[in-house]
Amino acid sequence: MTKSSIISKIKADKVIALIRADSSDGLIDCARALAAGGLTSIELTMTTPGAIRLLEKASAELPDFLFGLGTVLDAETARAGILAGAKFIVTPGTCFDVIELCKRYSTPIFSGALTPTEIIRAWEAGSDAIKIFPAEFFGPTYIKSVKAPFPQEGGRGMHPCAWTNF
User: Fold this and answer.
1) Which CATH architecture does the domain made up of 3-164 adopt?
2) Is 153 a catalytic residue?
3) pLDDT per residue as tens, the chain (166 positions)
């Protein structure tokens, strides 16, 4: 799957399920249940024990799913995730080494940012989309306000503030 087709699928789906758990037990079954409900784009977070092994297993067992790896803090973890089958990478902040690695591997990268300055820095560094994080303290009004000065899609196929964390 190409980078542009991954981004197109995410745009079309409009929702990415987030799996964050204390254990990897039952997460494959959870992914199947999400698929039964129509969600096949899923972010597994590094905060889940054994996340890389789970990602590798899930990607092999469910090849039609679009699995991503979230809560990625460094390039080494991003690389391990990509090699394990991650089709996109998500960071909680702007991690320049992760952005660079994802660009090298032609893997979509969604960087966390909160302020307009952080959004601009992540966008200029090459993020494909911005995950407003943490968003639960500010809500839809903040998202609408921060999106206003960023109307362009930048030619990357997604709005720089396309992804939020509610």
Assistant:
1) Alpha-Beta Barrel (3.20)
2) no
3) 899 999 989 888 888 988 887 777 788 888 888 888 888 899 999 999 999 999 999 999 888 889 999 999 999 999 999 999 999 999 999 999 999 999 999 999 999 999 989 988 998 999 998 888 887 887 788 888 888 887 665 444 444 445 443 3
Which position among 56, 100, 131, 144 bears the catalytic label? Answer: 131
| Active-site residue (options: 3, 43, 56, 87) | 43
Specify the pTM. 0.89
Q: Give the Å distances, CA to CA, from 165 to 28, 63, 130, 132.
A: 23, 26, 10, 6
Q: Is 61 a catalytic residue?
A: no
